[in-house]
């Protein structure tokens, strides 16, 4: 049985433990978008930890089976979704392809790499959902290629309202192993952050584009 709450907490624990997620409410990062952020997430770090990598592979596989049933193909989102997607495809014994951020500028000019067949039912694997924009670009590319996109899975989501709206508008279901609310709860209860930091972290999630605009830059 897929126990979602236990998995959400365990993944949050792992990501904090190996510093795949860093929380710095008093010394925020600056994302490439220009947003100030008290959190920085790099789930590629999980690949360097075999036991955690295995756990995530197994739970992403279970999540796909629980949420989407039988599929024909796993597709990763370049670049961080590629290794996670390969691991899941191997676990399921399925073909794998990946979607570039933009079409190759030489050779075949491919946007999708790997062998695909029109009509295949595919689940997209991503490492992180922020606004959902890059994930949905990949989803749309697969749809345009004639594939049936069952949905998308990822390791973690910030839980932004804009992401929920974007996925709803695209009519694309998604599911994640863990999320921001669970992470902050676990971090506070296990002394990764002070209890006094929780309000600051929650304020950021509610309005990330405007949070901390007057703070000094600390490029991530």
Textual characterization of the structure:
- The structure is a single chain.
- The longest helix is centred in the first third of the chain and has 19 residues, at 50-68.
- The chain has one domain: 3-Layer(aba) Sandwich (Rossmann fold), CATH 3.40.50.2020.
- It has a six-stranded mixed β-sheet with strand order 7-6-5-8-9-10, sandwiched between helices. Strands 1-4 form a two-stranded antiparallel ribbon. The chain has a two-stranded antiparallel ribbon with strand order 2-3.
- By secondary structure, the protein is α/β, with parallel strands linked by helices.
- It contains seven helices and ten strands.
- The N and C termini lie far apart (39 Å).
- 39% of the residues lie in helices and 21% in strands.
- Helix 4 links the parallel strand 8 (121-129) and strand 9.
- The protein has helices at residues 4-17, 50-68, 81-92, 133-144, 161-169, 180-189, 198-206; strands spanning 21-23, 29-30, 36-37, 39-41, 73-77, 96-99, 112-113, 121-129, 148-157, 174-179.
- It holds the Pfam family Pribosyltran.
CATH topology term: Rossmann fold
CATH class label? Alpha Beta
* Principal-axis shape: globular
Element-by-element helix/strand order: HEEEEHEHEEEHEHEHH
Q: What number is the mean pLDDT?
A: 93
Portion in strands: 15-25%
The end-to-end distance, rounded to whole angstroms, is 39 Å
Helix content: 25-40%
Unreliable stretches: 216-220
Question: What is the element layout, followed by pairings?
Answer:
Layout: H1 4-17, E1 21-23, E2 29-30, E3 36-37, E4 39-41, H2 50-68, E5 73-77, H3 81-92, E6 96-99, E7 112-113, E8 121-129, H4 133-144, E9 148-157, H5 161-169, E10 174-179, H6 180-189, H7 198-206
Parallel strand pairs: 5-6, 5-8, 8-9, 9-10
Antiparallel strand pairs: 1-4, 2-3, 6-7
């Amino acid at each position: 049985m897929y126990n979602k709450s236990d998995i959400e907490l365990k993944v949050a624990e792992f990501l904090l433990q190996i510093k795949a997620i860093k929380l710095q409410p008093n010394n925020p990062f600056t994302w490439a978008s220009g947003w100030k952020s008290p959190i920085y997430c790099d789930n590629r770090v999980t690949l360097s930890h075999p036991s955690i990598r295995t756990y995530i592979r197994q739970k992403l596989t279970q999540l796909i089976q629980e949420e989407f049933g039988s599929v024909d193909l796993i597709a990763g989102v370049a670049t961080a979704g590629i290794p996670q997607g390969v691991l899941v495809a191997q676990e399921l014994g399925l073909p794998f392809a990946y979607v570039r951020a933009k079409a190759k500028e030489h050779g075949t000019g491919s946007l999708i790499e790997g062998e695909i067949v029109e009509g295949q039912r595919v689940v997209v694997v991503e490492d992180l959902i922020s606004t959902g924009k890059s994930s949905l670009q990949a989803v749309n590319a697969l749809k345009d290629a004639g594939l049936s996109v069952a949905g998308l899975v990822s390791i973690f989501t910030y839980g932004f309202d804009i992401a929920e709206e974007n996925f709803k508008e695209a009519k694309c279901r998604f599911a994640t192993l863990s999320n921001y609310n669970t992470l902050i709860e676990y971090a506070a209860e296990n002394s990764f952050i002070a209890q006094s930091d929780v309000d600051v972290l929650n304020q950021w999630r509610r309005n990330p584009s405007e949070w901390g605009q007057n703070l000094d830059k600390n490029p991530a």
